[in-house]
Fold each of these.
Amino acid sequence: ADIFFVIAFSIEISFRLCAEGLRMYSIHHSDFAWNTFDTFLVVLGVVEEITKQGWKESIDLSAARVLRLFRFARVTRVLRVAKTFSDLRIMISGIMTSMKSLMWALLLLFLIGFLFGVLILEFVAVELLAMDQAPEKYPEGVELMEASLRRHWGSLMGTSYTL
């Protein structure tokens, strides 16, 4: 996996060298520090991969272990990329600040659904009671209609789900 990243970063440095030339290492370049740091990390990664492939079992690489600490510094490359995603950062910040309003809106939606569920459940209960007391007022198939009402609107959970 490390070799993949070394190759990818080497290609990136090569593309930047082709695009900007040696000007990217000029002190007057706006990204001079980042370019130098990136190149240092890529060279360090290439040297590490070569030493890992060449001397796998015979040489103690204690100096290479010290250099491995610089691998941790690769994480700082994310900081460099993060500044280019300022629009994304603004959008995420907007979403996070609107979460409180979103939660209140969801609570209001839940309460409205609950109130309508109770209201409809009450109407269905009255209708089912009327069906039981005067079945002659309803045409044939009252059992089918009653079963359908009980299935879809017979409980608060069923009513809320049906809504």
Note: The chain has a mean pLDDT of 79.
Amino acid sequence: MSTGEDSVSPVIRDVAAKGLSTLAKETAQCEHVLFDASTNQPAVDMNTGTFSIHNLGQYGVKAVSPIVLPPQACALGLGAISDTVLPNYDNNDKDSDKVYRVAPVVVATLSCDHRVVDGAVGAQWLAAFKQLVENPLAMMVM
């Protein structure tokens, strides 16, 4: 998160055990505490995390390759969503005679500290992330 003068990484713990609404509330709380100097809330947890997300898409950056800062294991970089021309492989589509289609695409780059995470495991995680982004309703069941 950018404070305007600096970039900080608040820690949200036990993410795997939380639903999307809880994560959204906790993220909003972190933003509120960071950006509203008049709050009397306790300081945001800025201790060491294991995974960081770097969203530069809000600045129009197409792709980012984040650096993993120890002791973190991985960093996910997200670029801007852009309409992209893709081959049309959907045979169930009524307009399947079209050779191409336009779809929103985002570049997601996972950087891993290979002393902690094997590259094949990182690739499997990124494939699972891709499936969830392409089918967001699957996250609602989790």
Note: The chain has a mean pLDDT of 82.
